[in-house]
Specification:
The chain is mostly helical. It has eleven helices and no strands. The longest helix is centred in the middle third of the chain and has 31 residues.
Length: 231
């Protein structure tokens, strides 16, 4: 229902402003259901990792002494979750959108591969950001405030609500340069065939490397000193 409501809002907007942001009406409808499909796999509303609960329970102490990287182990778990949700939470809404409104389908195998690769990069960028939010519990103890702030930033700057191309001037350029754009806007543009493939991959890979690098430093920091509720 949320996807259908968003589609009608975008239809009304594009009827008033045809060609807005370089999209036509079919692009706008497709944008609505593609971004809807990203919510589950990329956990755009936050969460998806069990680290905050393990910090509060004290189980994180066991995780940190295991002979495996906490970050890579959590990433593998998150990729499995994303793959499952892509099948059960992403494809059905897109099929509903296609049946009710009609959506654009990539023209060939190359465009499909570009989209799926961009989608995979987006999942890794999303994980990198959420992992940092989860690690913050080691210092903040309660993650509710930072989780709400993360949800607001992600939903606004990722392109989840409206295409980032609608943002004017320097603000639009800033939004497109932030990591959240790599999660939703750029994979969607790859699906629609409106983004340069190699440049998009390079941008996503850069932010994935930056966020994963910060996550590795954060993991190293909590190995030296971590405060756990109750001890």
């Amino acid at each position: 229902m949320f996807g259908i409501l968003r589609a009608y809002i975008l239809i009304a907007l594009w009827q008033a402003r045809p060609g807005l942001a370089g999209y036509d009406m079919s692009d706008a409808i497709t944008f609505s259901f593609i971004t809807q499909a990203f919510i589950g796999p990329m956990q755009l509303f936050g969460g998806g990792l069990g680290i905050p609960e393990r910090i509060r329970s004290g189980d994180i102490a066991l995780d940190l002494v295991r002979p495996a990287s906490l970050q890579l182990w959590t990433l593998a778990e998150d990729l499995g979750r994303a793959g499952y949700l892509f099948l059960v939470r992403s494809i059905p809404p897109m099929l509903v959108g296609a049946a009710l409104f009609g959506i654009i389908v990539p023209a060939g195998l190359g465009q499909w591969l570009a989209f799926l690769t961009g989608f995979a990069f987006g999942v890794v960028v999303s994980f990198g950001w959420r992992y940092l939010i989860a690690l913050s519990v080691c210092w903040l103890v309660d993650d509710r405030g930072v989780a709400v702030a993360s949800m607001i930033l992600t939903t606004f700057f990722s392109g989840m609500m409206v295409p980032l191309h609608l943002f004017p001037g320097w603000f639009g350029d800033l939004a497109m340069s932030l990591p959240w754009a790599a999660m939703v806007q750029l994979p969607t543009d790859l699906y629609l065939g409106k983004a340069p493939v190699l440049e998009t991959f390079a941008f996503q890979a850069l932010w994935a490397a930056v966020l994963l690098g910060l996550g590795a430093l954060g993991t190293r920091a909590i190995r030296h000193k971590v405060v756990i509720q109750g001890g």
